Amino acid sequence: MDDVILLSRLQFAVAVFFHFIFVPLTLGLSLLIALMETWYVKTGNEAWRRHAKFWGKLFVINFTLGVVTGITLEFQFGTNWSRYSEYVGDIFGSLLAIEATVAFFLESTFLAVWHFGWNRVGKKVHLLSIWLVVIAGNLSALWIILANGFMQNPVGYVIQNGRAELADFFAVLCNPYAWGMYAHTLMAAWLLAGFFVLGVSAWHLLRKSHTDFFRMSFRMAAPITLVLAVALAATGDLQGKNVAQLQPAKLAAMESHWETTANAPFYMLVLPDTENERNSIEAIGIPGLMSWIAYGDAGAEVKGLKDFPKEDRPPVGPVFWGFRIMVGLGVVFLILAAAATIQRKREMPCGGLMKALVWNIPLPYISIALGWLVAEMGRQPWIVYNLMRTSDAVSPVPAGNVLFSLIGFIVVYTLLGVLDIWLLRKYACKGPEEV
Q1: What pLDDT is attached to residue 328?
Q2: Where located (predicted)?
């Protein structure tokens, strides 16, 4: 059974991480394209129409491949996690059904209108279609995260007939953990798209290719990206406080905090020693900072990992390092976005900054993946926090079957990932079509 649990978790992780290569760029790039087309309709400037069409081509490539990887995710709740679906499907299933039948269909329909509607429908109708794509795409993400939010902080249910059944849909809809997660995920996705536009624009500016076009893209994206980097930090802080209130074991793992402490310090340099339940290195501590970050009170008590039974503790190493690297990347994003905003009006921004923005393109993807690692591994050993253990949720299937499907997923998803990167690189490097 342990092999089945491990393999099923690996398979779901592979599916989620590959799917989330496509999702954030879809969410963020649709917003930027909608802004470009809004300025085209408002000003009549044909340059903004060219921008919407160029970045729209990259958006459609990414969206198409994202659909393929997203469909298989929901099937795994029946194939790999059937006991989970039996126990909480009354709540979880309703949220996924709304996402698929309302938000996703709306997004797909109006994306078709937008993609094929150039010169076929009026300007305002065409503009409305891309804004509906933006709204529907981000609503789709909301329903998915409300479903995940129930796993993180189960609310609005009663236990009857041997399962969790929906008792208060409004409570599920207003779950504070889910809304904090949604805000942080949305800012991360939009920021990724901003850096994608900046990185591609910087690549062309360094090569003096389509300079007027990509200078315009750069000047538009830089201040938006800076605002989003600040918003990402703010929503991250708010979600951290949600974690402290609702999942104190996850907070302790994120900080490798072992002893329950009031006025808990935050250490800049930490090296966890999980075997001995301590930190082998703790250096440059700021008294009360961890308490203040977690609870808004420098004197607050922060519960340590030793206060939780070993069987209820998350894996400290991956959660701690995932969180630290994610925060470090957030600082890098703030610096790059600020530098790009300061230099955006120059004919040719600093070459070093341009190169850094090109190399930065994959980093927001890595940061988002680490964020999901912290969120999901930090909840373990619970599939639904304090309600259902992961070990009780897995399907009773042979380990060999799961291993076979896991290998298949890795092969197919790797091919799709390579195809996505190749197509995006090909058309991004090609640049816009000539007038």
Answers
A1: 92
A2: Cell inner membrane
pLDDT at 402: 78
Regions of the chain short of the pLDDT cut 50: 435
Q: At what angle do helices 123-152 and 82-98 cross, to 10 degrees?
A: 150
Between helices 123-152 and 176-206, what is the axis angle to 10°? 130
State the amino acid at position 409 in one-letter form: F
**Quick check: 133 and 96 in contact, CB under 8 A?**
no
In the chain, the amino acid numbered 288 is G
Distance CA 257, CA 303 (A): 8
Q: What does the longest C-alpha to C-alpha distance in the chain come to?
A: 68
169-214 pLDDT, tens digit per residue, is 898 889 999 999 999 999 999 999 999 999 999 988 888 888 888 8
Check residue 226 and give its pLDDT. 94
Pairing between β-strand 278-286 and β-strand 157-160 as defined by DSSP bridges: unpaired
pLDDT of residue 85: 82
Output the pLDDT for position 334: 93
- What's the confidence (pLDDT) of residue 363? 93
SS (H, E, C) the chain: CHHHHHHHHHHHHHHHHHHHHHHHHHHHHHHHHHHHHHHHHHHCCHHHHHHHHHHHHHHHHHHHHHHHHHHHHHHHHHHCCHHHHHHHHHHHHHHHHHHHHHHHHHHHHHHHHHHHCCCCCCHHHHHHHHHHHHHHHHHHHHHHHHHHHHHHCCCCEEEECCEEEECCHHHHHCCHHHHHHHHHHHHHHHHHHHHHHHHHHHHHHHCCCCHHHHHHHHHHHHHHHHHHHHHHHHHHHHHHHHHHHHCHHHHHHHHCCCCCEECCCEEEEEEEEHHHCEEEEEEEEECCHHHHHHHCCCCCEECCHHHCCHHHCCCHHHHHHHHHHHHHHHHHHHHHHHHHHHHCCCCCCCHHHHHHHHHHCCHHHHHHHHHHHHHHHCCCCEEECCCEEHHHCCCCCCHHHHHHHHHHHHHHHHHHHHHHHHHHHHHHHHCCCCC
- Work out the number of other CB atoms within 10 angstroms of the CB of residue 339: 18
